[in-house]
Amino acid sequence: MSLVLENIRNIAIIAHVDHGKTTLVDGLLKQSGTFRENEATSDRMMDSGDLERERGITITAKNTAILYKDKKINIVDTPGHADFGGEVERILSMVDGACVLVDAAEGPLPQTRFVLRKALEQNLKIIVVINKVDRQDARPEEVLNEVFDLFIDLEANDEQCDFPVIYAVAREGRAYTNLADAMAHKPATLEPLFDAIVKTMPHPQVNKDGKAQLLIANLSYSEYLGRLAIGRLKQGSLKPGQALGIVQEVDGKNVLKPIKVTGISSYMGLKQVPAQEVIAGDIAVVAVGDQDIKIGDTIVGIPDQSTAREDKWDPLLLALPRIHVEEPTLQMEWRVNDSPFAGREGDHVTSRKLRDRLLREVLTNVALKFQETDNPDRFMLKGRGEFQMAILAEQMRREGFEFALAMPQILMKEENGVQMEPMEMAVLDVPEFAQGAITQMFQIRKGMLHNIVNKGTGRVRLEIRIPSRGLVGVRNRFLTETKGQGLFNFLSDGWDTFQGDIGGRVNGALVSDRDGESNAYGLVSLQERGILFLGGGHQVYEGMVIGENAKEQDMWVNPTKAKQLTNFRTVNKDDAIVLSPPRLVTIEKGLEWIAADELLEITPKTVRARKKHLSKNGAPKGK
């Protein structure tokens, strides 16, 4: 197909977690004829990573493209979790419109508000898709009113508020323009949504005759072609062998560097297809080998030797504004694992490998910032939340890395001599029986109740403004109080004056006072004093945390204690030793639980909590 500018549509699919973005993209891919009739396909095809499939969430933004009639529709599936907001912000720079998905029962939630605000700021065309209208508790009319209220609250203009509405059941590939047909479950396809995209979304407003200009919004890697720069071509065209340069920021100034392009591709379905030409408005993939490129750089056309003197131009004038994302609110120390068990399970254990891996992550994730420390074995990583850090740590342990993490710390700043701290708007969906306990829990953490919604369904929605540091370590307690039935979401809500001290972890730790192997005989008496993190038969070392103490202070204990064997027999036979199931430490739970004097030791096989100083007297062991 010979592609022309008027036949291109660039859209993003944006919504809150688990509202059906990736499932909807699956349906669009299948019904557009992207796959052969006999071609094997899977569910959630855009969730390519193991972690994404396991958790059922989108972590990194991904591109795909479909053909509908004579139109090419480039689609970007964006993350729905607030911790990955940096992905959303940069991806919206590639599109002209967005499909905002909203669950027909849950309505617009925090991340819906976040992504919609960003889309409206960039004046994108919006299509609202009310998904999951087949749910028993669906309330599509009320949800649509809530969406209108959200648009007004975000100060959308009249044109932006005049959006088309599609009702859908994404998992069954059905879409309707009429609510009555949707509620009657009439047979349908996604054609109404295809038509709405083609009709509502404008083709890119670009200069197709200008010099090549592409803002890098995403990075990828190919074993054959090296680094891949992904972005929408703002003007001109790209062809193999074309003279190109890259504009980068060095010490606050733009600097032009020539680059050698090893390949040019565009998207078709889930694949990158080599292209002889990519025209302005289309999303391009530019392979540059091992050359240094970063998200936010601009690839530009440069004059070559054949260019006449009078036709030469200054490529620096083609530089586009760099992508801006919200500042990090949390920092965490990553350090080389120095426990007695260091190097037993990991393949990558040195500071050089840990540093290189973190720097590589920062290259592809603009929401993260890397910082050196005075200690060459420790590095500081700044980001948006614990979950973002936990996902990166899980990815790295699966790659064979071994390291340790310190307790997350909230970043503060000073304005006009006043200390400021980041705030969050937490939206909690809880059963009625847990409303009092949850409200009290958040009030203790300096939370302020802003809104409460009770529709008589047995569940209550609470909106609480709370300092970011008040959310550290709260998720597990929240799930316990709601008996696993609560939904927990939060969204950045700017900065405010310091809200006062917030108490830390209430319980102390049970800490092993020696090296050895844990023994059921020794543990059975310890479980009466708290909650154990392990059972019998595990190797332990001095300073390793083996459980949570029921009291506030730490307790150093002997988990290796074995029964003394004698040849004396007693009247009473020995009672059978019964240990309660241990509370297993995961990365997410561990980051929420550890205190300032503790670390989370992470290896490909094990996650352990430990004291920073392993000896009982608090001094570094061996000193």
Question: Would you mind describing this structure in some detail?
Answer:
The chain has 623 residues and is an alpha+beta fold. It has four domains: 5-200, P-loop containing nucleotide triphosphate hydrolases (Rossmann fold); 213-318, Elongation Factor Tu (Ef-tu), domain 3; 415-497, Alpha-Beta Plaits (2-Layer Sandwich), CATH 3.30.70; 509-584, bipa protein (OB fold (Dihydrolipoamide Acetyltransferase, E2P)), CATH 2.40.50. 20% of the residues lie in helices and 31% in strands. The protein contains 14 helices and 36 strands. The strands form six sheets. Strands 19, 20, 21, 22, 23, 29, 31, 33, 34, 35 and 36 form an eleven-stranded mixed sheet that branches. Strands 8, 9, 10, 12, 13, 14, 15, 17 and 18 form a nine-stranded antiparallel sheet that branches. The chain has a seven-stranded mixed sheet with strand order 2-3-1-4-5-6-7, sandwiched between helices. A hairpin with a 4-residue loop joins strand 6 and strand 7. The longest helix has 14 residues, at 140-153. The radius of gyration is 28 Å and the shape is globular.
Summarize the structure.
The chain is of the alpha+beta class and 623 residues long. The chain folds into 4 domains: 5-200, 3-Layer(aba) Sandwich (Rossmann fold), CATH 3.40.50; 213-318, Beta Barrel (Elongation Factor Tu (Ef-tu), domain 3); 415-497, Alpha-Beta Plaits (2-Layer Sandwich); 509-584, OB fold (Dihydrolipoamide Acetyltransferase, E2P) (Beta Barrel), CATH 2.40.50.250. α10 packs across α14.
